[in-house]
Amino acid sequence: MKTGLFCNYDNHHQDARRAILEQVALVKQAESLGFEEAWVSEHHFSESNLSPSMLVLIGHLAALTSTIQLGTAAVLLPFHNPIRVAEDIATLDNLCNGRLLFGIAKGGPFPEQNKHFAISMGESRAQMLEAMALIQKLLYETDVSFNGQFYQCDRLTVYPKPLQRQIPVYVATGDDDGIGFAAKHSFGLMGGPPFSLQRLRNTVAKYRALNSSGSEDLILARFFHVARTYDEAVSEALPFIRKFSQKMTANAAVVMQKSSSGHKPFDRTNICFDEDYLLENSIIGDVKTCRDKIQLFQDELNIGTLAIKPSSYDLQKNLESLTRYNQEVRNYV
């Protein structure tokens, strides 16, 4: 199992420059500790997470690092022109010397994003899958012609081509169409911090029933904080967990109110934002608790990469937590 850092560019102190510098410090610390990957999320219109221009941020990280792989977690494809995404991804792969990992998603329960990008929530999954099909062609083929429901091109070749022969692709999905698409192309899967273990089990089982060759390529993101005692870890992480819970519960309520497409319920078998649920499903606690939780996820899911999201408001506490993970947790699971 590889270890990754999950990067949300958290704006804990209402200071954009500080948020960027603190995230860079965490990525540099992760690289120095031998973490294999760093995954950057995409969020829009959020004062809490300052990563709307995810690919720009990854370009910045590419210049400041040398060994850690850099991943998109994930490009929200319905909000982007896939031709531009193909150009940007290929350019980034060259900038980071072939260290790029490419995660995609349709966009989570953030109604404001769909509203302002004028994208129907009911069509966003279909747009994601079609966009990715076009991007794959554009990255590796020439004179591409494509005539889809949402996107078209005629004898198009984009430059540059990626440095890697094939950039690894991961799909954040629990939907049958998304799982089938990932399995068909042997793409990996991604699971977000609030995804329940039951949902992840079901997703992985469906994938493996269709394709066993890429089933071990699961990126699991989890909120994380390890401290000397369980109570100390929870106390340090709770303000972050509480704020996340409140924000996402409000978003989920709006999604369910406006949904006309049979949206799956937000509950403890699927995705849940209750504070106690988030604490239970995160990797937060003393060393033994964190070891046991990671071992459970690994036993149940055969994780390819565990992407841990530092969950304290204090940079120094997060740096200490990463070091403690590396010294006392990582080699025991």
What this model shows, in words?
This protein is of the alpha/beta class and 333 residues long. It has helices at 16-32, 54-64, 82-95, 111-116, 124-140, 176-185, 197-210, 230-258, 275-281, 287-301, 315-329; strands spanning 2-7, 37-40, 69-76, 100-105, 144-147, 152-156, 169-172, 188-191, 218-226, 283-285, 305-310. The chain has an 8-stranded parallel β-barrel, surrounded by 9 helices. A two-stranded antiparallel ribbon has the order 5-6. The chain is globular, with a radius of gyration of 19 Å.
How far apart the termini lie comes to 9 Å
Sequence of secondary-structure elements = EHEHEHEHHEEEHEHEHHEHEH
User: What structural class do helix, strand and pairing data support?
Assistant: alpha/beta
Strand order of the largest sheet: 1-2-3-4-7-8-9-11
Q: Which labels suit this protein?
A:
8-stranded parallel barrel, alpha/beta, 11 helices, two-stranded antiparallel ribbon, 333 residues
Could you give a short description of this structure?
The protein is built from eleven helices and eleven strands.
Task: Produce the secondary structure layout.
Blueprint lengths: L1 E6 L8 H17 L4 E4 L13 H11 L4 E8 L5 H14 L4 E6 L5 H6 L7 H17 L3 E4 L4 E5 L12 E4 L3 H10 L2 E4 L5 H14 L7 E9 L3 H29 L16 H7 L1 E3 L1 H15 L3 E6 L4 H15 L4
Helix pairs in contact: 1-11, 2-3, 3-5, 6-7, 10-11
